[in-house]
Amino acid sequence: MKIPVSITINGRRYDRNVAPRLLLVHFIRDVLGLTGTKVGCDTSQCGACTVLLDGVSAKACTCLAVQADGTSITTIEGLAGDDGLHPLQESFWNKHGLQCGFCTPGMIMASHELLRCNPDPSAEEIRHGLEGNLCRCTGYQNIVRAVQDAAAGGSQ
Length: 156
Hints:
The chain has 156 residues and is of the alpha+beta class. The chain folds into 2 domains: 3-78, Beta-grasp domain (Ubiquitin-like (UB roll)); 87-151, [2Fe-2S]-binding domain (DNA polymerase, domain 1, Orthogonal Bundle). The chain is built from 6 helices and 5 strands, in the order ββαβββααααα. The protein has helices at residues 24-31, 76-79, 87-94, 104-117, 123-129, 141-151; strands at residues 3-9, 12-18, 50-53, 56-59, 72-74. It has a 5-stranded mixed sheet, with helices on both faces. It is globular.
């Protein structure tokens, strides 16, 4: 049995018939081919699958595609504009807020939510705001610096 869904992702509407148990992360990656959203754990522990669901950060491994019917989603691919990278993406690049890069899309999407709610967070507030996103490579210091840089308007 398939269920029809209509989901807008990165400004483009997708109408598909999906299995009722298809996770949103697999819809994004496997059905639509947008591979920036990562599958890290399938248990909502790592945050690699974080997207913006109607403007609010959400872990795409905890949501079924049918639950996202009628919503608007932004993935890491949708943050950048026609004029270049989003300021958070630039700051992660400039401040070396990544190593292997696997967690980076989720970190950036969670940071987007953090800055929306708190445009001038302290280092402690950034660390607390990103607690749901795990990085296995870094000590988080450059990630914190990247978020601080983006909050300050970029490349300090």
